[in-house]
Design goal:
By secondary structure, the protein is of the alpha/beta class. It is built from eleven helices and eight strands.
């Protein structure tokens, strides 16, 4: 079942209000969790349940997603990265390990380029090296109107097929995430990702990194993931067998264990 947490609200410097939750000891290593496009902080519920108290994990709804404010603009990749830095300010963190799932890992890379002093390390989970160009499903997204149909969201999950079984309640929660996102945010956030210069092409990324990839991920070829690793200082590249693109959905406990080992190794 989904977690029940003490939900707090942070107000970013731009005035955007974003909800967030925390697990673990506040004196532990801070880890900020960045969900993927059209998801929410709740996507990390299963993984957070496996983290020890020594990892202070903060999950939050990014602009336009979940229960966050939904302004008309501010969805470019660089603006998303600025929101992460503003979130750190709002919750009183100087720096943190950033964990990004799928496109959340793309945002994390941009934070490391634009705000390197705020990043203690990167954990990139099924994260792309580049999203430049128009994806094949963009036409469908362009045709969306409000309210977004949950049946369409459920059908869209076929774009990212899972190999490992995922609980029905968790899938239903991700469908609810997508249905809550307004049509303009679906479009603007996708454009912000696909129009951006890939972060690793714009500047070196010196942060220590863990790049986690599912061996059955047919969206992100192994060669692209290896190119991503080559652009990161001291990166490690664990490959999860029999796992698709949505590693967070399919392997939350293993991901939690690898994240914990990485975080403790930074001390």
């Amino acid at each position: 079942m989904a977690r029940t947490d003490d939900v707090r609200t942070a107000r970013l410097a731009t005035g955007i209000a974003v909800p967030w939750v925390a697990a673990g000891d506040a004196t532990g290593v801070p880890v900020v969790l960045l969900h993927a496009w059209a998801e929410s902080r709740r996507a990390f519920d299963r993984m957070r349940a496996s983290l020890p108290p020594s990892v202070y994990a903060l999950a939050w709804d990014q602009r336009g997603h979940g229960d966050a404010d939904r302004p008309a603009g501010g969805y470019s990749l660089r603006e998303a990265a600025d929101d992460v830095a503003a979130f750190l300010d709002a919750v009183g963190l100087t720096r943190a390990v950033l964990v990004g799932s799928s496109s959340g890992g793309y945002v994390a890379q941009q934070v490391a380029v634009d705000h390197p002093a705020r990043v203690a390390g990167l954990v990139l989970v099924g994260a792309p090296r580049s999203l430049r160009g128009r994806p094949p499903f963009a036409d469908e997204v362009d045709r969306l109107c409000d309210p977004v149909d949950p049946a369409w969201v459920r059908a869209s999950l076929e774009w990212f097929p899972c190999v490992q079984p995922v609980p029905d309640w968790y899938l239903a929660d991700r469908v609810a995430d997508g249905a809550r996102v307004p049509a303009h945010v679906w479009r603007a956030a996708l454009s912000g990702l696909s129009d951006a210069v890939p972060p690793t092409e714009s500047a070196p990324i010196p942060s220590p990194a863990l790049v986690i990839w599912g061996a059955e991920d047919h969206l992100l070829p192994r060669a692209e993931q290896q190119a991503l690793c080559a652009a990161l200082t001291g990166s490690r590249f664990p490959v999860y067998p029999a796992t698709g693109h949505l590693v967070l959905w399919e392997q939350p406990a293993r991901m939690a264990a690898d994240l914990t080992a990485f975080v403790h190794g930074l001390a």
